[in-house]
Design brief:
Length: 489
């Protein structure tokens, strides 16, 4: 449910932007609201699963996520949709860590690595289904249908969970929940993300600067609280384990790169290159299919050769793929540019993801599996959250810097220029046909200027995510090499 929903929404962004007359900032909040509450509360979800029962908390997440999906499907405006996405994040925070914790509590040794690889593979194949299914629904039904598809999936999940999943807990954990830590995490992340998303449009005004200040203070207070409470949401002691810390740093940079890329690529393909939603979804298919095919194999790599090699090579290959995506802009042919790039990204992520998850889970004792899963998932979600917000500032500044001199050359009338400026916050989603004062010839010129300006911002963001992937590889190379004993030796 969560993996399908993530990719479905990315492909649907241009359609919902047009349908709700949303700005680029609104579109960013549609993604960020979900990631914010998922990232901030996923640790609570993992801890609650350890304490109250992983199966029980998992099912709670399923029901909450589904109800929020219905809210999103009926949303009449960007604010309601953003609220629905936030509620989806809350539900997912109880659903996501429980799935991996249940697997970790059920399997041991090399079978755990293979099971996690299978989990990664099915996550990948549902990710693959998402863009194509979502694109088809956007074109032939409505973008709202991409949220309603969660209802039948939820019914299947509930039946399978009730019938086949056994309950498990961590008896060492107390009954106290760290709600103060959760609140400080939400406030801290919200403040920083609000500041980053609103800064390009509003500038350094008091609400923006104040949001940064509140966010920073809340995050500092979060660390202080977590060091003192009896059952912290984020057990700081876990970070004394070198492998756990390095693996989570790798997770942060690799998933920051992936999150920003998956946000920007559909916008470039649909709004600039003119792909349909279905075609854009199909263009992304090689990535999850490769992960599905290779994830079970890569899940067993840690047991055979250790984690250092795949966690170094995987991010490097991924970074090369992201760098090659910069060739997509303009009229470059799909088969010669985007296809080989996305194949390379898929290979790199396939090499890295399952070994990364296995390394994180194996670095802690079994009774802390829910917490470890929550921490690692939180890091991945927060990484994407931060990347989209930070790169949002870069993309907005680059787009404006490229577009302004192009518009100045066209000698637009005052009324036409005002109309273009009203559409400008939508970036590549700007509707030049909605500006009646713009003559037909200038309409074509302005559309071309907008596309070229966004393409420049897109290329810069792809170079940035490639650099993040290479940084991730340096943490992989630093992980202590520890190869578990082979059953055949």
């Amino acid at each position: 449910m969560t993996f399908i929903d993530g990719t479905v929404v990315n492909v649907a962004l241009p359609a919902l932007q047009k349908g709700l007359n949303a700005t680029m900032t609104d579109v960013q909040w549609v993604i960020e609201a979900y990631a914010l509450f998922l990232g901030a509360l996923i640790l609570v979800g993992g801890a609650l699963g350890d304490q109250l029962g992983r199966k029980r908390v998992f099912l709670t997440g399923v029901f909450g996520f589904t109800a929020a999906s219905v809210v999103c499907g009926f949303a009449p405006s960007p604010p309601i949709l953003i609220i629905g996405r936030a509620l989806q994040g809350v539900g997912a925070a109880f659903l996501v860590p429980g799935s991996l914790a249940i697997i970790t509590a059920t399997f041991t040794g090399i079978e755990r690595g293979r099971a996690i690889g299978t989990w990664s593979g099915f996550s990948a194949i549902t990710t693959a289904i998402g863009p194509v299914l979502g694109g088809w629904l956007v074109e032939h039904v409505t973008w709202r249908a991409v949220f309603f598809i969660n209802v039948p999936f939820a019914a299947i999940v509930v039946v399978l969970t009730l019938r086949y999943v056994s309950e498990s807990k961590d008896p060492s954990r107390g009954k106290t929940i760290d709600w103060m830590g959760a609140a400080l995490a939400v406030i801290g992340l919200s403040g920083l993300i609000f500041g980053l998303l609103e800064w390009p449009a509003l500038g350094a005004i008091l609400p923006v600067v104040g949001a940064f200040g509140v966010g920073a203070v809340a995050l500092i207070a979060f660390v202080v609280v977590e060091a003192r409470v009896r059952n912290p949401m984020l057990p700081l002691g876990l970070f004394s384990i070198r492998t756990f810390t390095l693996a989570n740093l790798l997770t942060f940079f690799l998933y920051a790169a992936l999150g920003e890329a998956m946000f920007m690529i559909p916008l470039e393909l649909i709004q600039v290159r003119g792909y349909t939603a279905t075609a854009a979804g199909a263009a992304l298919l090689p990535f999850p299919i490769i992960m599905f095919v290779l994830s079970r194999w890569s899940g067993g790599l840690v047991a055979r050769i250790g984690s250092r090699l795949p966690l170094t090579i995987g991010p490097i290959v991924t970074g090369i793929g992201f760098a090659l995506i910069t060739r997509v802009a303009g009229d470059a042919p799909f088969l010669a540019t985007f296809l080989p790039a996305i194949v390379i990204v898929g290979l790199g992520m396939a090499i890295a993801v399952a070994p990364l998850t296995t390394t994180v889970m194996d670095s802690v004792s079994g009774e802390h599996s829910g917490t470890a899963s929550g921490v690692n998932n939180a890091v991945a979600r927060i990484a994407a959250l931060v990347a989209i917000a930070v790169f949002g500032v870069v993309v907005a500044r680059t787009f404006d810097a490229q577009l302004t001199p192009r518009l100045d050359r066209f000698e637009l009338s005052t009324e036409a220029r005002a109309g273009v400026d009203r559409e400008r916050p939508k970036m590549a989603g700007a509707d030049v046909n909605a500006i009646p004062s713009l003559p037909p010839k200038q309409r074509v010129e302005v559309r071309d200027a907008i596309d070229r300006s966004f393409a420049s911002a897109f290329r810069l963001s792809m170079f940035g995510v490639a650099l993040l992937a290479i940084i991730a590889a340096t943490f992989g190379a630093s992980i202590p090499q520890a190869v578990p004993p082979n059953d055949n030796t």
